Amino acid sequence: MVLRPLLIILDQNEPRKRWRETGSFEAKSNKGQSRSPLKKHEEWLLELVRQAPDLTLEEIQRRLLDERQQKAGIGSVWRFFDRHGISFKKKRSGGRAGST
Q1: Of 17, 45, 59, 60, which sits with the fewest C-beta atoms within 10 Å of its C-beta?
Q2: Is pTM, for the whole model, over 0.90?
Q3: Among 88, 68, 66, 67, which residue's Cα sits nearest to residue 79?
Q4: CA–CA separation, 18 vs 66, rounded Å?
Q5: For the range 8-17, what are the long-range contacts, defined as Cβ-Cβ under 8 Å and sequence gap of 24 or more?
Q6: Helix residue ranges, H only, the chain
Q7: Which of 41, 54, 52 lies closest to 84, judged by CA?
Q8: Do the Cβ atoms of 24 and 18 come closer than 8 Å?
Q9: What angle (nearest 5°) sits at the alpha carbon of residue 82, between those of residues 81 and 83?
Q10: CA distances from 19 to 10, 25, 31 (A)
């Protein structure tokens, strides 16, 4: 099997353009810009937990899919609410099953 070298083609004008525009070769920072697909559902999600604060992350995930046709992982849902200062506590079970 012959391995071909991987060629990475860079736009050679990009560093010069960046220098002319900013006086720096540093790439732009994307701080403060959300790439979350949940951003477009922000108002709906925040209202959802206002109306039902006892929802679990799994229930919110399921409602996102059922009502908004938006797939999202539990981690994405958690990070969305964490960015908004909303935390979820684990629900305590109703108690242990009695012994027989």
Answers
A1: 17
A2: no
A3: 88
A4: 45
A5: none
A6: 14-22, 42-51, 57-68, 74-83
A7: 41
A8: yes
A9: 90
A10: 16, 5, 20
pLDDT in tens, 34-87: 678 999 999 999 999 999 999 999 999 999 999 999 999 999 999 999 999 998
Neighbours of 72 (CB within 10 A): 21
Tokens of 56: 């679990």
Contact (Cβ atoms closer than 8 angstroms) between residue 64 and residue 72: yes
How high is the pLDDT of residue 18?
75
Q: What is the dihedral angle through the alpha carbons of 39, 74, 45, 35, rounded to the nearest 10 degrees?
A: 0
